[in-house]
Design brief:
With 174 residues, the chain is mainly alpha-helical. 61% of the residues lie in helices and 0% in strands. It is globular. It holds the Pfam family Fer4_8.
């Protein structure tokens, strides 16, 4: 499904108001992770409206959205850019397209499964082991954060781990 079919699918998932986008860029200027994105949120919406499926789904920006909803709150046309990103993620997942950083997601979920929370130190160490190219910047940042007391060496564990394990089991059975 390319072209108009792709556009219609995203509009069905994210809302008819997408058609009213004036490309003002308010969504992109509000985004806290815009500086990390290969395509701004404004450009993602344009790609959707132009039916450029391959480019839209290949964008790493889809995976960088933090769901803070500032784009949605500030849009002068009432468009929900986060809903567009969610629609693109859904289409990616259905088509077996994953983030370039899928290994980070696995490490993150492994920590939630085993401790019920994420330890910045363990997460960084596990990610660095799987991605040696990222090890040096992670270590530099970790040393700085540790020296400022911003991260703890205690990985901790939440209460109610049996409930978390149950949620994972139910999710795996779907």
């Amino acid at each position: 499904m390319d072209g108009e079919g792709f556009t219609e699918e995203v509009i069905k998932l994210a809302g008819e108001e997408i058609r009213t986008c004036i490309q003002c860029g308010t969504c992109s200027s509000s985004c806290s992770t815009a500086h990390l994105m290969d395509n701004s949120i404004r450009k993602l919406i344009r790609l959707v409206l132009e039916g450029r499926k391959r480019e839209a789904l290949a964008s790493e920006s889809i995976w960088l959205c933090t769901s803070c909803l500032l784009c949605t709150v500030r849009c002068p046309r009432g468009i929900r850019p986060k809903a567009v990103v969610s629609a693109l993620r859904n289409i990616c997942e259905r088509e077996g397209i994953s983030s370039r950083d899928a290994s980070f997601e696995r490490v993150f979920m492994d920590q939630i499964r085993s401790r019920g929370r994420v330890s910045e130190v363990l997460l960084s160490a596990a990610y660095a082991l799987r991605n040696p190219d990222a090890a040096v910047p992670i270590m530099e940042m970790g040393i700085e954060l540790l020296s400022r007391g911003k991260v703890s060496l205690d990985p901790g564990m939440v209460k109610g781990m049996d409930e978390i394990q149950r949620i994972f089991r139910e999710f795996e059975n779907e």
